[in-house]
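User: For my dataset I need records formatted as: sequence, then structure tokens, nothing else. Please produce one.
Assistant:
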Amino acid sequence: MVNRWMMGDNIQGLETLEAWKKARTLVLVVYREVLPLLPAEEKWHLNQQIRRSAQSVFANIAEEHGRFYYQENIRFCYIARGSLTETYTHLVLAHDMRYIPNDLFDHLKSQIDELIRIINGYIAYLKRSKRGENEPGAKHFIQEPQSNYFTEDPTDQTF
């Protein structure tokens, strides 16, 4: 027996989520307009990287929505945003290799910029809302780790 949550309110809510709708549009453009332009020798390389990263954006937004633990949702938004940046990077390479034309690349970049703004806004909303703060694990904070970058010469042996 399928309960109402699985097929009703949650799915309808997902379909109205702006980030999900924009990610869906992006993945469809990638499938319909970008992947057919890639040469056969890229079928198992760049093609697969673009396909998987674009799908990951769409899928992680859906997964975060289905969890109903709003502070954990932030983590999935971070993952979706990372996959979106990865998708952009693969598209830059495809553009640099002249596999995709300027107008399509500009359109995709615009879509990605808009989706990043939407995801960032959604993350800010989730952080402010504090929904689920009384649920198990709610006292754990999710944040992006700060990276330290080293600029020393790794071949320098003078210690």
